[in-house]
Write a structure and sequence with these properties.
137 residues; five-stranded mixed sheet; 28% helix; 27% strand; globular; binds tetrahydrodeoxyuridine
């Protein structure tokens, strides 16, 4: 897996972030097990709670195109005009959304730059996650 490329794609996706309210811009790039990459940005709304995070934008784009198996996701975020001071870790809702398809093994790459990042398995970010296995009959 080419982490640098995935992170660069997350930065490119962040260019499209629609953030007139928080001015916090996030980009994500989701790598499928088949090698395809889907990107996403956060999309806010005048009704604030309707905002969609970058991670879920990428995930929903991918799933709606038929993808179900994922290997890694790169996430970058920063306030407008500020350069990636700290890493952006996926919010709780995004962790749960990703868990549905990525499970414990999904690699989450949280980057300040293509060469400066922290990575964790989703199972470490969402311990004892509730997923499809819980509903197995
Ligand atoms: N946001 C994301 O897109 N991903 C994250 O991991 C954290 C938060 C967005 C939601 C909202 O548009 C803005 O960042 C501020 O919370």
């Amino acid at each position: 897996m080419n982490r640098e490329r995935l992170i660069e794609m997350a930065f490119a996706a962040r260019e499209n972030a629609y953030t007139p309210y928080s001015h916090f811009r996030v980009g994500a790039a989701l790598l499928c097990k088949n090698g395809k990459i889907y990107t996403g940005c956060n999309i806010e709304n005048a009704a604030y709670s309707v905002a969609n995070c970058a991670e879920r934008t990428a995930l929903f784009k991918a799933v709606s195109e038929g993808e179900r198996e994922f290997e890694a996701i790169a996430v970058v975020g920063s306030l407008e005009g500020e350069e990636n001071r700290i890493i952006t870790a996926p919010c709780g809702v995004c962790r749960q959304a990703l868990y549905e398809f990525g499970g414990d093994d999904l690699l989450v790459i949280m980057a300040k730059s293509p060469k400066d990042y922290v990575e964790r398995r989703l199972g470490d970010l969402l311990t004892l996650g509730f997923g499809p296995a819980n509903l197995d009959k």
